[in-house]
Specification:
Adenylosuccinate Synthetase, subunit A, domain 2; 2 domains; four-stranded mixed sheet; about 425 residues; globular; 21 strands; alpha/beta; Adenylosuccinate Synthetase, Chain A, domain 1; ten-stranded mixed sheet; about 20% strand
Length: about 425
């Protein structure tokens, strides 16, 4: 299909990069549409790991064109560092990357504000990555931000930045008691990166629409996951962008009806990084085993991920919101060796009400008690299996139950990190 969107159906870290890497082989363009350097995608190629943060992971495939959409919060310094690191490992990036001139910039003051704000929250901190993403999107909504196009006009950029920093520095000093930033230093850091990135800047919306008009295939790469979506996630413990399929059009400039396929990615269990409600969290040896077996540590921050049983209530909500046409199930292999598996099919709320709906109220989510059903586990490894019929019966049964609860057909099952460790069902 010409336009396919890849979205996470949990709290991010679902293994989207592995699925993106699989589908990028048959795509002409891979485009990132939201988030920023707070996201991380890990791809394993011939046993070698590549970590991506802003550059679309499709760049790991020679000859593929990649784009960074206007919906991305773009840190020019971090992006340039990432490009240089990828080039040092043999990937050609600059000739195959187009950066939207309309993407908003993450500047040094955004990161300073976020760090000060998180510290001031104390035990109520959101648990952000401190990459300045939230303050960047806040500036965007407040019509006080800067875009990539501004870096191409240094004189105007310096003047506007100096005016903006008058307010920002007042906030840093008077509200947080911090040290003011130098307008010249902030400007020069960004402009130096901008000079090197300038040849890659273009109109991504035009690029994508022209490609679709010509029948070329475009793969839209989402970051984070639907349960971190600023509108539909576990607010306020969310990211600052539309991490669902709803962010594709606004983040790239292509109309919603041009999206032909929505592939939702879900892990065979559930994880979450940072603070916020997590009804099925396992604070025991089982959770520790899943973390170690699944190597559940953040690509960008290295933080340990909280682990828990599969939450069908939350994942079904995300699948419906995204109108997924198919799902990809990842890390099924990690569950091998667990004698009993559990799936949350409903919640009991603080007032004793049982529900299979995903609550909007934070108080309800924080106090929700999951209602579990149990499934038999299996002991054998899955890494060499390439056909669904060769899975152990208990594994097949578990997969069928998950996809039945979520309400979508399974297209892919990942049984290992590397390319090829995948069972294709469609």
């Amino acid at each position: 299909m010409p336009a396919t969107a890849i979205v996470g159906l949990q709290w991010g870290d679902e293994g989207k990069a592995k699925i993106l890497d699989e589908l990028a082989q048959a795509s002409d363009i891979v485009c990132r549409y939201q988030g920023g350097a707070n996201a991380g995608h890990t791809v394993v190629v011939s046993g070698e790991k590549f970590a991506f943060h802003t550059v679309p992971s499709g760049i790991a495939h020679p000859g593929k064109l990649c784009a960074v959409g206007n919906g991305v919060a773009l840190d020019p310094v971090a992006l340039l560092e990432e490009i240089r690191a990828l080039e040092a490992r043999g990937l050609e990036v600059r000739s195959r990357l187009v950066i939207s001139e309309r993407a908003h910039l993450v500047l040094a003051y955004h990161k300073a504000l976020e760090a000060l704000d998180e510290r001031s929250r104390g035990t109520g901190a959101i648990g952000t990555t401190l990459r300045g993403i939230g303050p960047c999107y806040a500036d965007k909504a407040a019509r006080a931000g800067f875009r990539v196009a501004d870096l191409l006009r240094p004189g105007s950029f310096r003047k506007k930045l100096a005016e903006r920093l008058k307010r920002v520095n007042a906030e840093i000093e008077l509200v947080f008691g911090g040290k003011p930033l130098s307008p010249d230093e902030v400007a020069e850091e960004a402009l130096a990166a901008g000079r090197e990135l300038a040849p890659m800047v273009g109109d991504v919306s035009e690029l994508l629409n022209d490609a679709l008009d010509r029948g070329r295939s475009v793969l839209f790469e989402g970051a984070q996951g639907t349960l971190l979506d600023v509108d539909f996630g576990t607010y306020p413990f969310v990211t600052s962008s539309s991490a669902s399929v709803l962010g594709v059009s606004a983040g790239t400039g292509i109309a919603p009806q041009r999206i032909d396929r929505v592939l939702g990615v879900m892990k065979a269990y559930t994880t979450r990084v940072g603070s916020g409600p997590f009804p099925t969290e396992l604070n025991d040896e089982t959770g520790s085993r899943l973390r170690e077996r699944g190597r559940e540590f953040g690509t960008t921050t290295g933080r340990s991920r909280r682990c828990g049983w599969f939450d069908a209530v939350a994942t079904r909500f995300a699948a419906r919101l995204n109108a997924v046409t198919e799902v990809a199930l990842t890390k099924l292999d990690v569950l091998a060796g667990e004698p009993v598996l559990r799936i949350a099919t409903a919640y009991v709320l603080p007032d004793g009400t049982r529900t299979d709906r995903f609550p909007a109220a934070l108080d309800d989510l924080e106090a929700a008690r999951p209602v579990y059903e149990e499934h038999q586990g299996w002991s054998g490894p899955l890494g060499e299996i390439r056909r669904a019929e060769d899975l152990p019966p208990a594994a097949r049964s578990y997969v069928e139950r998950l996809t039945g609860l979520v309400g979508a057909q399974t297209a892919l099952i990942s049984v290992g990190e590397g390319r090829g460790a995948t069972i294709r069902l469609s």
